Structure formats: structure tokens, C-alpha cells
Amino acid sequence: MRIKPVLSLVFGLPTQDGNRVPLTRLVPGQGQRGDVAFRAMDPFLLMDHFGPMTLPPGTDAGFPPHPHRGFQTLTYLIQGAFKHRDSTGGSGLLRPGGAQLMNAGLGIVHEEMPVPEHLETGGAIEGVQLWINLPKADKGSAPGYTDLQPESMPWKAVPGGRIRVLAGTWAGVTGPARTPAKIAYAHLELVAGTRFEQAVPPGWTAVVVPLHGSVLIEGTEVAADTVALLGDGDGVAFECLSPASLMLLSGEPLGEPIAHYGPFVMNTREEIEQTLLDYQQGRLGHLA
């Protein structure tokens, strides 16, 4: 197995989104334009690590109604709880260890807000949201929402730790999320000194993102909230320099043109202009 070296390091950008939710924008990161990130990380468009934070009692920190078109979101919750509603009538409770896969497709409006208990008492929140591009043929697909409960993707033991696979296959474990783009996505927790190795298909994008702790990849140290984009090879390998919590991503590049504006990702500028008009005229849906 030819191990992929670190091609580039991208440092997360601390910011806020939604209703005063602190997060680190990992993709695009500091000094990285969206179009550069889209090409480098294809088929991944955006990655946010929100929290960890403790919501004070009475807070309404969350993500109020907002639109999307042309891609999928995969939101994974490490701790805390959110409730989801969208313009297709979809709703659900996002619990620790669970995720929600939302297909924006032709267009959707949704919200993710604290559960009533957090509104009353406060509580800890941490998670990761990933945007996955849709192939051109699927950008006009019907919008929808799928709950991925923790029971459908339990922790599995690996040497030196454990892994939870959301999509594709890592360490012999296959996750429940199904996406038109071919991807593999997992949360890995390891003790210090552990070495992890995994084969990946040649030509696929591969990314290692420590959320906490640090790892060594072919002589390059990668710290928390830093994106390590890997180069040529057919395997991912690293050693944990400290106890680490990481997200592992790999995916087959779509290699298609990208036009984007805020929460919309299409193939041409004309499609973006039509999307803006559709949203202004209410054709992306409404929350009841």
C-alpha cells in the first residue's frame, strides 16, 4: 500500500453561523476561497465543526429557517440534541451519535434548533456538518430528509479505539448513509500512540480532520481543527500523538463545473440566478 502524504494543510476559520452558534469552518478554511476548496476537496463542499459549547438556559442558539439547492447535507451530532423541520414536511430529533442526511436537490428550506430541554436548562452541543455535492444529473432531484439514528451506526472497536461509520466503508465497517456521490465518512477516536491504516480507491480525494488532539501523517503533524488534504497513493495512515477524535473523509471526485452562491451550489451562473429567483418567489418551499 502506497501511503498518501499530506498535500496541503488548511487551518479552520473560527466564526459564527445561524443564531450565534460558534463554529470552526474547516472547508473552506483560512485563506482558502470557496472555488479553490471545491476543486481540491471534490466532492465535498463545506465542513463545519460547531461547538463544543455549552448553551446557557434560555438560549435559542441554532440554525433558523434557511434554503439550500444542489447538494446534500450530512449533519452528525457528537453531543447535545437538535430538532429538524423542513419544507417537505420532514422532521426529526438529532441525538448524540446520530445524524441527518438531507437532500436539498431541487430546493428545500429547513431549520435545526435546540430541543425544549436545552431552551429551559441549557446543555452541551458539538457536531459536524458536511456538504456533499450532487452530480449534475441529481441536482434536480426531489428534496428529502433521512434520520440516521445512533443505533444504525454504532461504535465498533478498532485497535486502540473505536470507529463510527456514517457512509461508505472504513475499517471493514459500512455506514447507513446513501449518497449519489461515492463517499466514505467516519468518526474515529483513538488513544495516544495508536497507528491507523486504511486502503482507499486510487484517485479518490482523501482528507483527515482532527477535531481534538493531533496526529502524524508521513512526518507532518496535523493539529485539531486542521484539514489535512492528502496527495497521491492508495492508502491513508497516521499515528496519534495524543488522544484524538477525528473525521475521516474520502470520495470520488465528480469533476463537474461548480457555480455557488451562499447556500446554493449549481453548475452554471445562470442556474444560480434562476435559483435566486425561485427562492424569492417561494418555489423552494416554506416551513409551516
From TrEMBL:
Where the record annotates domain Pirin C-terminal, the positions are: 185-284
One matching Pfam family is: Pirin
Task: Report the PANTHER family cross-referenced here.
Answer: PIRIN, PIRIN-RELATED
Domain (Pirin N-terminal): residue spans on this chain: 37-132
Query: InterPro entries attached here?
Result: Pirin, Pirin_C_dom, Pirin_N_dom, RmlC-like_jellyroll, RmlC_Cupin_sf
Record SUPFAM superfamilies: RmlC-like cupins
Q: What is this protein called?
A: Quercetin 2,3-dioxygenase
Q: Describe the family membership recorded for this protein in Swiss-Prot or TrEMBL.
A: Belongs to the pirin family.
- CDD domains hit by this protein: cupin_pirin_C, cupin_pirin_N
